[in-house]
Amino acid sequence: MKAMTIQQFGDENVFELNDVNKPELKPGHVLVKIAASSVNTVDTMIRSMGDELPIAPPLPAILGMDFAGTVEAIGEGVEGFSAGDEVYGCAGGLADLPGALAEYIVADARLMAHKANNLSMREAAALPLVGITAYEGLLRAGIKAQQKVLVHGGSGGVGHIALQLAKHFGAEVYSTGGGEQQLALIEELGATGINYKTESVEDYVAKYSSGEGFDLIFDSVGGPNMLNSFSAAALNGQIATTVAMTELDLSEAHFKGLSLHVIFMLIPMLHNQYREQHHHILRELTNIAEAGALRPIVDEQSFSLSEAGSAHARLASGAAMGKVVIDI
């Protein structure tokens, strides 16, 4: 099969299009003919940082975590899937799991689900990693109907999904963005947009919560921005963050009695534990999408398999609106 491989870690030019052996089916797994894969920030981090990250695969490697495609064969012990089924998942591209920048993947059946009938292969490929992250974060933070929810970075990959899911769960949703395009997308998806460049935390807390703060904050920006989340949170508020690799003063979180939930959705893939949870979440995301309450935004630029490096560059440029998708 054709695959984009890397022989070394580095910039986006390290990708090479090669012929490699088609992966062999094994028990508990499904052979999928891949139609599309999407690029996540963690993919670009692995490619550029390599062994500095404990999740990096051994070289040579096939990167790419997300996929959508069609089942070609099922392994021993697999139930619920048949040849010809259209599926999606996040199942490779790190540690010892070969990735999705290839014509085929052998994926653990617990890391995939049937894709939504009303989503294209490109849209479905854009959803798994960000969808699981957003869903897990909101549920771990105990989202409830009528809560005031703030999403930091609501036009980004994870953020625009968290925004839609929070709305689906009945919350009153607000979201920060940094420009006209970003804010327009946030409003289009049903949230109240907040320009963090022109409105201070104090200003929008006063404006939208009568100074009391938000019940739940999904912080897809993280790092130093978590201090803004602490400031924007209500007393005993809940904060879910996807970027916690930082050092912060937790004093304000202490005095406000905040709960902090760190979301690292790769744990089931890395440790082969709780993988059934990813199957469950993907099934829920399919149901929500088919109900018309969730649609991933795909960037206007498209890329072929041989253009994987350009797709990585597109994501890194910050110019993409929505998820960058590679057609296989």
TrEMBL record:
GO MF term list: oxidoreductase activity
Keyword entries, A-Z: NADP
Enoyl reductase (ER) domain ranges (all copies): 10-326
InterPro entries: ADH-like_N, ER, GroES-like_sf, NAD(P)-bd_dom_sf, Zinc-ADH_QOR/CCCR
Superkingdom assignment: Bacteria
Pfam families associated with the record: ADH_N, ADH_zinc_N_2
SUPFAM superfamilies membership: GroES-like, NAD(P)-binding Rossmann-fold domains
The name this protein goes by in its record: NADPH:quinone reductase-like Zn-dependent oxidoreductase
Organism: Pseudoteredinibacter isoporae
